[in-house]
Known about the structure:
alpha/beta, Rossmann fold
Amino acid sequence: MQTDVNPSDSLLAGLISLEEIKPGLTLITGPRGSGKTQWCLKVFDHASSLGLRVGGLSSPSVFENGKKIGIHLVDLSSGERRPLAYHRGSRRGDLLTTDWQMDVETLEWGNSVLEKAVDCDLFILDELGPLEFNHGVGLTAGFGIIEAQRDLPVFVSVRPSLLPEALLRWYWAGVLNVSCGAAS
Length: 184
């Protein structure tokens, strides 16, 4: 089942409440800039305000003068933030994609964060992308956590182009299509 939402929707309260924490996997999808990361961070804020222990990672964009110059990786349980990616050719980066240079040390750190996220009330992974699905590198520890955590609410952002593959892998998942022009 797919539901279309705006990142500012009040749908969060229905998904997460102290009275009934709804287990299951929800895939957050939408085009670049639609607000997937913003939506995941709203889930984090809402769950935290309820006193829930949130595990996982977020990948907020880094902007300078209104232009996206990079991506950070944030441990949602500790708040620790590390540089993950820069535009190709702008700074160091060990793993090259079409547009980005990824920091392998940050990816390794991210995987260690994911492996420790088993003791939480809610899990968020923003995002699983082409590195993970197509190349078997990146935040691959996320796959095992998602498959093992069927008794928790789990939110994972994926690009629309990877949604069919994600649904083949996780046929039980629900889908939220984020469709606002906010930065993700």
